[in-house]
Recover the amino acids of this structure.
């Protein structure tokens, strides 16, 4: 299957580093891509980026996707040159063994390794133990003096991984939430002369508590909010169908709820109506655990009608996150169609 979108840009977005609070590199890419498509681009004191297309009415809608990826911050460099870290976002330490990482220093990036000891050298207790992030030691391949000279407390660490095609899917690190950033940028390219003012918002610090969206919701004070994020696709061996949440290849997902938000029923019903009218494949998302920027906008500046469109993704918060290319395209199509038909006349009050 040919990729029906700009795969090169998606690779750049997913492979660029940007942990919570330090989204500088990805912010530059997003700003570069937004500027030709919108009337104005602004950033705020937290680092949120907002590209605005001015509409004909006084009403506004914000579309939000977060820029940050889960990562780490250096908390100590040992005398032997090993690096210890503190987590930025939710990591399952089991997936960190035998991985390469990039340590982002003031001068240059340093490659490091999270090693995994040979199993035949471990006793039974060691084999069965589950490590914590605090137990991880990153091997820099440097002696203690050089490691301490080049790496400092507060330096940032991201996983090292390329984005690849695997069958009908794309896989790599930071699809959460760069693949939704990509969908948002594609919609910004597609939409012309909207009735409402549209704010395309690339938010920060979602992975540590939807902090950027909460602040931005107050500053923008939109009349309507649509968040974009990945969602769980547990359609793999070992899970019952009721626990899949979503399935790859069945279309974009319209969120009904997650653990942080119950989407406005009138918003998600209209999203479904638009999908039906445009013959866009979609599925409904009932996510038992996990939160998104949807909640930040719903609660930040008063009662704002909020909904969300999600991209089904397997293996979340790992370096092999995977999404189906058709679901990505369906997400772009639904977001574009929704914005093109939003005229401020829909009543989302309950």
């Amino acid at each position: 299957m040919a990729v029906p979108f700009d795969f090169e840009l998606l690779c750049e977005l997913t492979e660029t580093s940007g942990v919570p609070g330090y989204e500088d590199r990805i912010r530059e890419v997003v700003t570069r891509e937004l500027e030709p498509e919108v009337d104005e681009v602004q950033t705020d004191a937290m680092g949120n980026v907002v590209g605005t297309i001015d509409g004909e009415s006084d009403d506004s809608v914000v579309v939000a996707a977060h820029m940050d990826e889960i990562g780490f911050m250096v908390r100590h460099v040992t005398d032997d040159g090993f690096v210890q870290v503190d987590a930025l976002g939710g990591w399952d330490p089991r997936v960190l063994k035998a991985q390469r990482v990039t340590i982002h220093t003031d001068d240059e990036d340093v490659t490091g390794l999270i090693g995994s000891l040979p199993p035949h050298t471990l006793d039974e207790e060691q084999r069965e133990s589950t490590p914590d992030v605090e137990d991880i030691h990153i091997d820099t391949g440097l002696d203690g003096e050089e490691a301490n000279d080049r790496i400092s407390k507060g330096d940032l660490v991201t996983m090292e991984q390329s984005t690849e095609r695997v069958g009908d899917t794309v896989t790599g690190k930071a699809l959460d939430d760069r693949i939704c950033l990509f969908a948002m940028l594609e919609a910004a390219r597609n939409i012309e002369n909207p009735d409402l003012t549209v704010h395309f918002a690339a938010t920060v610090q979602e992975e540590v508590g939807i902090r950027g969206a909460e602040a931005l919701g107050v500053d923008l004070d939109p009349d309507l909010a649509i968040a974009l994020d990945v969602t769980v696709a547990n359609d793999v061996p070992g899970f019952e169908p009721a626990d899949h949440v979503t399935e790859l290849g069945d279309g974009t997902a319209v969120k009904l709820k997650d653990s942080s938000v119950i989407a406005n029923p009138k918003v998600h019903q209209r999203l479904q109506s638009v999908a039906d009218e445009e013959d866009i494949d979609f599925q409904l998302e009932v996510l038992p655990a996990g939160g998104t920027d949807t909640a930040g906008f719903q609660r930040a500046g008063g009662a704002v009608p909020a909904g969300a469109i999600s991209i089904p993704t397997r293996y979340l918060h790992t370096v092999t996150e995977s999404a189906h290319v058709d679901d990505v395209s369906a997400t772009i199509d639904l977001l574009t169609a929704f914005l093109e038909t939003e005229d401020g006349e829909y009543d989302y009050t309950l």
